[in-house]
Design brief:
alpha+beta, 155 residues
Length: 155
């Protein structure tokens, strides 16, 4: 779906299995070649190397209210199961900057989703996913606006 949307808007697209993502991976040259300002990850379940050039320019979305229920191994249904087992009254979605450690980057935006007494992993997952779909475009727009503002100041 993401590729077809990118093609529709004539956006540059890079597809790779990302088996060995290091600072020398071809994605970094490609990002520079295409003058990419912000990388928005989604469902990316491996570390994304961050150096000074990319600090504050790579964002990710997480299906919980970080800092709770984050870190290595906390993705998808694992997160929702942990939320339900903890008896938390709310969950949600978090957009954050990517850092060297899973889910530890600065939080950009969050959206709260109540946890219902009769929630299952599936029902909670559906409501959190709806929150993610609402939140991520807003966060990307916010980051893009801040980047544009910075470029205007430096020109």
């Amino acid at each position: 779906l993401g590729i077809s949307i990118g093609e529709q808007f004539k956006l540059p697209i890079f597809v790779d299995r990302f088996q060995n993502l290091s600072g020398q991976h071809p994605i970094f040259a490609w990002l520079e070649q295409h003058h990419i300002d912000v990388v928005a990850l989604g469902g990316f379940l491996r570390p994304f190397p961050i150096n000074e050039l990319w600090r504050g320019r790579v964002i990710n979305i997480h299906p919980a209210l970080l800092p709770r229920f984050g870190g290595k191994g906390m993705y998808g249904d694992h997160v929702h199961k942990a939320v339900l087992e903890s008896k938390a009254k709310e969950s949600g979605a978090t957009v954050h900057f990517v850092s060297e450690e899973y889910d530890q980057g600065d939080i950009i935006m969050q959206k709260v989703v109540p946890v219902m007494e009769d929630d299952s992993i599936e029902s909670l997952s559906q409501r959190v996913f709806a929150a993610e779909c609402d939140l991520y475009p807003k966060a990307i727009t916010k980051i893009a606006a801040e980047q544009a503002k910075q470029r205007t100041k430096s020109s």
